[in-house]
Amino acid sequence: MINANSRQRLKRLKPRQRKKLRVGEFQELGFTVIANLKEDAAAGAHDGLLDAWLDAVEQHGVSFGGHFSDGQLDGIVFPINGVAVTAEMRNALNTWLQARAEVSDVECSELLDVWHSAW
Fold first, then answer.
1. Strand pairing category for 103-108 and 29-37
2. Is residue 8 part of a domain?
3. φ, ψ for residue 78 (rounded to 5)?
4. Residue 32 belongs to what H/E stretch?
5. Is 14 within a domain?
6. Mean pLDDT over all residues of the chain?
7. 1 pLDDT exceeds 60?
8. Residue 10 CA, distance from chain mean position
9. Is residue 43 in a domain?
């Protein structure tokens, strides 16, 4: 696979092309999240956790896409409306999930290019 952000490739592209391809200064970062939930939680606790998680993500100005089934929350946090996902935001959301009583363990990836990475 060709590195979408290689110096040689970026040098050939005009700003308009870099923006269209979402490379260089227009690269968009995000991170994946896998949270395993405790099995002994009350029936409505999982729905409450999902609602609270989506609110926490929304408060940071970003979005979450993924699925919630079989006691696992799995997806990716990605930028919307020009708000960039940062390492501080990743750490804050990771800490938020770890602090929840319904969650047994959390795995967050490092920041990755949401358009040109296999996640």
1. antiparallel
2. no
3. -140, 160
4. strand 29-37
5. no
6. 87
7. no
8. 25
9. yes
Cα 118 to Cα 57, 90, 92, 106, 113, distances in angstroms: 22, 19, 24, 20, 9
Contact indicator for 103, 97 with CB cutoff of 8 Å: yes
CATH number of the domain that residue 34 is part of: 3.30.70.100
**In angstroms, rounded to a whole number, what is the distance separating the alpha carbons of residues 98 and 106?**
6
Closest by CA position to 66, among listed 48, 80, 50, 84: 50
Residue at 71 is within a domain: yes
In this prediction, residue 22 has a pLDDT band, given cuts at 50, 70 and 90, of: confident
Instruction: Write the pLDDT tens digit of every residue in 27-52.
Output: 788 999 999 998 876 767 888 889 99
CA distances to 67, 97, 99, 116 from 23, rounded to whole Å, are: 27, 30, 35, 9
> Residues 66-93: what's their mean pLDDT?
92
Number of domains composing the chain: 1
